[in-house]
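Risk register update: the risk of archive-format incompatibility is retired. Evidence:
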Amino acid sequence: MNPSRRAAETHPRCPGHCPIAPLRLTAFEELMYCEDRPTAPCCVLVQLCWGGRLERDRLDAALARVLPRHPLLLARVQRPGRQLFWQPVPTAQVTVQWSLGEEDFGTIPPIDITTHVGLRVFATYDAREHRTKLLFQAHHACTDGKGLLGLIEEVLAHYQAALGNLQPPPDSPMDPQAFAQRGRFHRTPTNVLAKIPRQLIGLCGVRQFLNRHPIPLLPNPAGGVPPQAAKNRAVCRAGVPSTYPTFVCHELGTAAYRQLRTAAQHRAVTINDCLLSALFTAITKLRQQHGVAAENQDWLRIMVPMNLRAPGDERLPAANLVSLVFIDRQPQQIAQPTTLLESIHDEMHQIKKRSLHMLFIYAIELARWLPGGLQRATRTDNGPITCVLSNLGVFFTQLANCQPGTQHAPALQLGNSPLEQIVLCPPIPRGNCLAIGVGSYQEKLMFGVHYHPEKITHPQVQDLLQLLEDALAELV
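Archived output:
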């Protein structure tokens, strides 16, 4: 008998009857584990704002019903030898942690994935505003943003069903073999070899990635260290800033979003192309406003997660089915918005056409076999990027399709509580100050800007968002 199969059969199974032990972390999961540190927690955050009060018991029941289908969120990372493995925690219980009378969540602790499972859920209810906020915090070693949103959508569907407004969603059977092979991304020796000729051009991009040294979004906050950071400097040196997580929610209204979508279709580009172009312009102008304009030889670099889910992967539980690409530009390439947009569209088109996003997966798979592995590759506190832009597309498409009348209703509803806003915040990479998540809901673009208050101030973040909105308007 195969040793790994024998071990899996004798090892406890996680709830949902999906054996995940012994199951080694994929290269991307291991990278997210190594990127995690007290000063830069590697967690994905999703905040939902509801107009009304949600029922605690129904929410806990829906969460308990859904979580067994997502075993990585009910597991810890263990290192019995040189390799990292998922260890299921059959007794783990994740319940919503409520705080009544609070407007915001305040400080929440990071997740130590070696001692705790990878999901926490928080809720606040403000009686004065009659509003409930939910915050889902997931360790990025367990899942990417798409996976976490899928879990949340399942929870909302079961909550809605408990109210009697919907039929209970069917429990999709999980394919244990496909789950165990989640890090292969449907690669076979045949299709890997077939893609090599068109991926060779990507080697030039790898060389450029290694040779270029991108500049930070801002070297230091204007006027020195922000007051709240100065007060908490000792805390920050010891670990996580006391203000973690700090993020701003921003909306691009319906009229502006529709105009942008129409302009993108007219130019034969994507919304994501427009967002990348506008973000380069906004960063450049923000630096100019604060007297730190880039030199012509400097590089700005935006990290862009790319979804690797294929048709049929919706049956998989929450996991990391994602790669990363890096878009670089110099100041002289950013000066003309139209030219910048066209160049970004061409580059992204080539990345998708030639499957160049897979080069990052190949690189980290190779790196973890080298001496020191991924831990050595991530040992410094300086990250090789300027900022992050993660576009999640349309939020909650499946729930919108199954809820009667939702396409014409003002918002998704849980009973009498409409969903007013949803934002996703990616983790801030080590050494960086800002990461942006964006998605569309109710014909609006919802931005979640996760920032480090020691490195960039709240007014500077607001300035960046205004400059981003202005740059998007120039493309219309």
